[in-house]
Structure formats: C-alpha cells, structure tokens
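Please produce the structure of this protein holding adenosine monophosphate.
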Amino acid sequence: MKTLNDFNFKNKKALIRVDFNVPLNDDFKVMDNTRIQSAKATIIKILEDGGSCILMSHLGRPKGEEDKYSLKHIVDAVEDVLGVEVAFASNSIGEEATNAANKLQPGQILLLENLRFHEEEVAGDKLFAEQLASLGDVYVNDAFGTAHRAHASTTVIAQFFPEKKCFGYLLEQEIKSIDKVMKTGEKPVCAVLGGAKVSSKITIIDNILDKIDHLIIGGGMTFTFIKAQGGAIGNSLVEDDKLKLALEILEKAKTKNVQVHLPVDAIIADAFSNDAHTNTCEVNNIPNGWMGLDIGPNTEALFSKVILESKTILWNGPLGVFEMPNFAKGTIALGYAIAEATKNGAFSLVGGGDSVAAVKQFGFEDQVSYVSTGGGAMLESLEGKTLPGIAAILD
Ligand code: AMP
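Below is the modeled complex.
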C-alpha cells in the first residue's frame, strides 16, 4: 500500500482529493472545520518536503454552478487551519486552473472550485479526470468520505498516475483502523450495532459474523429480534417482514460461535417524544401503547461487562433515541464503557453516521481509539465491499 511517506514531494505538485464538504451557515461561514483539520497533516507533510498542493473537493450536491456551493466560501477557513495563504481557481479545470497550477511554487497551496459544478465529476468522466490530472505530478487521495464513490476525482483519475499515486495520512489511518477490527483485531472482538432498522445493517451483520466473538444489538432494531423470539414489544419500532431474517441471523451467529447480546430491559414511553411518560420494563414484556426508546439499566450493566472484557470494539449506531435527552442514557453508558475499555488497552473504532454524532455530542471523541470521518464509506467497508477510491490506488 503506497502512502505519503513513500514519496518525497520536493518540487512536486501534489494533486490532493480532500473532503472539504463542510457545513456552512447562512452567511457562508464554516460551522465545523473538522474535515479541514483532518487533511492538515497530509498537506503540511507535502509543503515541508518542498512541494506544493492543489486541493480539490466537492461541497454539497449542486445542480450545475450554484454560488452557495462555491468553495470560495471556505478559503479563509482553510487558511486559518493551515496557517498558509491559499489561492483559489474559480474553475477546477480549464485555463484559469492550468495557469494557477503552473504558477504554483514550492510551499504554496491552490484550492480548486467545487468539482461537482461539472456533472462529469459524479459521472466518473474520463476526459474530465484527465483534465484534472494534467494539473499535478502526484495524485494523493485523502478523502475517505467519498472513497466509496467511483467519481472522476476519487477513482478514475488514479489511472493517469500509474506510479505516482498514494493515500494521504487520513485515508491511510481509516484503512488501518478498519483492518484492525476486521483483519488483525485482538480477541475478543465485539461489535455493537444499534440504530433504527435491521434492514439497513443486515449486510454488515452478515459480513462481520466471521470476524467477531460478541455481537451487541441495541436501538430500534432490537424489537424485530425480540418479536421474532415471541416477545411482546407494544408499539416499538419493528420490521415485520424481517422477523424470519432476525431468527436466521441468530442461528447463523450460533453456528459461527458468536455470542449475541440482546437487551433484557427497556426504557419505554407512551409516545415518541422527549416529554412522554416513561417507565422501565422487561424488553419482551412491553405493554400495548408503549414503545421501547432506550435500553434499560440491567442492559446497560450487561453490555458494559461485555465491552470491558473485549480487546477490540466496533461501534455503529446508537442504542436508543439519543437525540432526545430522556432516551440518551443507554448510548452514553455505552460510550463510557468503550472509553473505559480503551483506557485499559482495547482498540475501539466508532464509525458510520449517528454513532459518530453521538460520540461527539457526548464528548467521547478523544476517549476512543478512532472516530471514522466517512459515513457511507465506513458502512460499505464494514459490509466487506472494496471501495473504488481505495482500489484505484492499490491497482
Ligand atoms: P441508523 O441511521 O440506522 O444508525 O439509526 C439511527 C437512528 O436510530 C437514530 O436517529 C435514533 O434515534 C434511532 N433509534 C435508536 N433507537 C431507537 C428506538 N428504540 N426506536 C426508534 N428509533 C431508534
């Protein structure tokens, strides 16, 4: 696997695919610069080698050229993070971009306009990729968030740099973290899957059963499993067409010697609202008119024990409706347990959508081993898919 440290960028122009798809407010100010911060190490290494950087990214999902999605809005934020002046080209290809790239001196940075202003980007157009490729000497992919897309700048472009392509530090770290869980994880390996529905996690479960020792199931999908086993779930979220599948998963886990841990109790509510009346009851004995919105205290203790005995932990999906404070307790308790296990030497990876939001919201970000920067890309990795953006560098 070629990484940044395999190259010396002295007098080289690095064409870097970054993920600067950052949230902007109504005044076009960057609300969260995490993604810019994440690319900093890669950019600084190249500048310190004596090279220059051409940064390319998408922002949002524009339909053609839409000013609100212009990357010009983020130039100041990029300069703030990097501490270096950043030039801007108002088109990612063509004369302006070519001239600006040609003028670039060692130590300088050029940011290109939103790649998705050209529909050829998402279409994976070869000619567009070739035009982008002509701007730089070495191609660096550091955008995990789009590594699952076969777009021009993430995948197609790599063929124009047969010997001169590599992963940036961020992408390298993402790949190594996933491998640490899926390939080289110290046993016991535990996966925690929460979130709303079984249907969206089924491919992940199928893929990871070969790699784990414990599977903790929480969140809304709990109730499909509980109902399938004959439990009473009241008005809890359920996928009635997945009951058979739930039993098959449990059976398959048994044949693969994976211990499945389902909740034993639940915090129930008489409405899907933070202001609803609440109670605690056995997870398979929920009265009609009530729904389970979080795990109960006995489940917290049970799950924490499994986590503390694990050496490798993967967490995807909240254990309850954590957006409502009254149903966030189980997710927070899990965060504490994972933080504690990590302190004791376990490797913990949090990835994919809402669990990342929960970890950040409740302040566990620095207490776990790695928080993934890619939602869809992480989910597809856990499903066992080879991401096109990664494959293009490995080719
Ligand atoms: P996902 O995107 O599949 O990971 O689902 C995340 C969503 O699942 C969050 O918005 C949670 O509020 C929701 N969720 C978690 N537990 C429950 C539950 N018991 N009932 C309904 N929704 C839930």
